[in-house]
Design a protein that fits this description.
Distance between the termini of chain B: 36 Å
Radius of gyration of chain B: 13 Å
Strand content of chain B: over 45%
Order of helices and strands of chain A: EEEEEEEEEE
Shape of chain A: globular
Structural class of chain A: mainly beta
Largest sheet of chain A: 6 strands, mixed
Radius of gyration of chain A: 13 Å
Number of helices of chain A: 0
Structural class of chain B: mainly beta
Oligomer: heterodimer
Helix content of chain B: under 10%
Shape of chain B: globular
């Protein structure tokens, strides 16, 4: 369903640690999922995507996990760096339809 | 990835006036464009979806007469906020997708402040 516009939760991690950001999606018919990074005052930036026929996909320092049984998506960032500090959104899409954003998580990296 | 350019990046307008925001796909043909609004510390809320040459489809609760969307070409969509009020102050973001129907690319957003 639509994001309800809640205030964003914050995840604080130490530089060099791994980060895990979680997202629950609502539409069991969604077949495509994307993680975006948004820095202050900018538009969302694509990080990684995954289709519903997969349960894991890896990129450079990032891994997305998809659990369709419980409608859960996670983003893992390895060796988190200060430049990773941003707001992270998951988004889901039913084929051909609109992209619906999750509530988002603020990631703060402490040096 | 493909480039979507949004202009202006920030605008201040007086209450009661109208303001137009442009969204351009620079290196691909955008058959579908989306307009989002984002309030501080909140997620992106879809306002409307527009397909080139067709009328936009508005989300529930979004006034189509207030937020005019035009998608007259495969590279340009515009959002006009008519008779703007301070409560319309927000961050407006467009995204564009081509006919292959895969990921959508986002513009850099427009910060609208109505005074």
């Amino acid at each position: 369903g639509e994001s309800v516009g809640l205030h964003l939760p914050t995840l604080s991690v130490q530089e060099g640690d791994n980060s895990i950001i979680n997202c629950a999606y609502s539409n069991s018919a969604s077949d495509y999922f994307i993680w975006y990074k948004q820095e202050s005052g900018k538009g969302p930036q694509f990080i990684i995507d995954i289709r519903s026929n997969m349960d894991k996909r890896q990129g450079q320092r990032v891994t997305v996990l998809l659990n369709k049984t419980v409608k859960h998506l996670s983003l893992q960032i390895a060796a988190t760096q200060p430049g990773d500090s941003a707001v992270y959104f998951c988004a889901e899409r039913e084929y051909g339809n609109k992209l619906v954003f999750g509530a988002g998580t603020i990631l703060r990296v402490k040096s | 990835g493909a480039v979507v350019s949004q202009h202006p990046s920030r605008v201040i307008c007086k209450s009661g006036t109208s303001v137009k925001i442009e969204c351009r796909s620079l290196d691909f043909q955008a058959t579908t464009m989306f307009w989002y609004r984002q309030f501080p510390k909140q997620s992106l809320m879809l306002m409307a979806t527009s397909n080139e040459g067709s009328k936009a489809t508005y989300e529930q609760g979004v006034e189509k007469d207030k937020f005019l969307i035009n998608h007259a070409s495969l590279t340009l969509s515009t959002l006009t906020v008519t008779s703007a009020h301070p409560e319309d102050s927000s961050f407006y973001i467009c995204s564009a997708r081509d006919s292959t129907n895969t990921e959508a690319f986002f513009g850099q957003g427009t910060r609208l402040t109505v005074v």
